[in-house]
Amino acid sequence: MPASNSSKILKPLPPSPSLESMSLLLLFFLFSFILHAPPTTYATSVVHGYGDKQVFDLKKFRWTQQQTDTLNCFHQRSRTEKSATILELHHRDFCSEPISDWNQILQKHILSDQIRVNSLQSRIKTRFSNGFNQQLSQAEIPLTSGAKLDTLNYIVTVGLGGRNLTVIVDTGSDLTWVQCQPCSSCYNQQEPLFNPSESLSYKSVLCKSTTCENLEDATGSSGVCGINSSSCNYYLSYGDGSYTRGDLATDNLVLGATPVKGFVFGCGRVNDGLFGGVSGLMGLGRSALSVISQSYNVFGGIFSYCLPSVTDSGPGSLILGGETSVYKNSTPISYTNLISNPMMSTFYFLNLTGVSIGGVSLQDPSFGKRDILIDSGTVITRLFPSVYNVVKSEFLKQFSGFPKAPAFSILDTCFDLSGYEEVDIPTIKLHFGKEAELEVDVTGVLYFVKADATQVCLALAGLSDEDEIGIIGNYQQKNTRVVYNTKDSTLGFAKEKCSSD
Ligand SMILES: *[C@@H]1O[C@H](CO)[C@@H](O)[C@H](O)[C@H]1NC(C)=O
Ligand SMILES: *[C@@H]1O[C@H](CO)[C@@H](O)[C@H](O)[C@H]1NC(C)=O
Ligand SMILES: *[C@@H]1O[C@H](CO)[C@@H](O)[C@H](O)[C@H]1NC(C)=O
Question: For this UniProt entry, which residues form the secretion signal (predicted)?
């Protein structure tokens, strides 16, 4: 076609072309441009408003003198704006002891991330192959001390039974639980333990009740009658060695200023895993026991979050209710459908229809065919192996000329950026059905394995085989308003600067 013919046609032209031949030449170029078919692997690259690259300021991300403000660590604030309840959301590292070894923290996140992903994969596989009635297979997951639930990074403060409690938020599970007195085995937490006897509104859930039966959906194992035969005992394992065991109860939950009366939660008497020292966990999944289902009458099954970077000192937010005018999004919200999967009713699945790097749309046979999970607790996005390979090669093509650095754990595309102040990095967009897209924030493209930037990696990984489920991790959701609408079964993305400090 035209491209190869052009030189042949150009040669016969006179050295000083007439006006006529000039316009012919121009016409020819125009036509050859229009007719020129794009190479098979790429669609035409469209330059979007932002341009194909974004400037990334490395100075901000050298974590050498990062300060952590322990004052703000617990008691995240909350407020009500219009009909929305806004809970401040912090990254857990922001609340830990002053960090002396950032390299260790950064590397630990990646190592424990693989444990979380393995545990999600095995929960999903167990449900697919054996149906609902199987216990979680725990044998497959290595127990790694110190890594348990380490990737569930975001915390909020809620009221329960007249107290304030700081809990981790998790969209990958349903049951909310807190450590409870009397406790047979509790890990150390910063706030005093929840004491049922101090709350007049606290009630035990009976084991012969629908609530107790709902446990199976929410936790994968059914409730059992306790020693006193009337209580409903639960057991919830996260598959990474962390677990909670106790009895189901109800009490008044207060989200911001909004009460949720008779909220069902787990009073954990034997718990292990949450090394962040928080009081428990709040499940934002899709089944009947999740806080979203239980507050349906108040918030209509809609919530959204905006996850800040660790380097942001200000908080992000978890917003309950469908009042979109309180969001601070800078682009319109683009919605896609949540894919229902009756076998995995807890999880939020999306239809990944494409990926583009620097405006170049990549092709892969899996697009539009394989569901991908969106999760607040996984750090690094896991792509199907074939997708990851095309993403990696296009990224390397566009982000070239930088010294290579060794791979680290699941991250295999690494650079030594120690000599640079700032770099231009190609934008990464994930596309979903109905024209929705997640444009990965510039802080979500590269992961610092070493705080001094001598080892900085593309913050994406491939799954180990094509049968596993892809996951959109929280590192790629930063500075994005992610709106979950369980009523309409949709999910939306918009750009937002989460921390307005
Ligand atoms: C809980 O925190 C709120 C502020 O977010 C405060 O107004 C309230 O007094 C606290 N309640 C208790 C019981 O400490
Ligand atoms: C069982 O009942 C006894 C007496 O009512 C009570 O003291 C005990 O705390 C109960 N145990 C549990 C696990 O609820
Ligand atoms: C996912 O998107 C593709 C392409 O738009 C479409 O053909 C397919 O039906 C969608 N799958 C689901 C489950 O919605």
Answer: 1-43
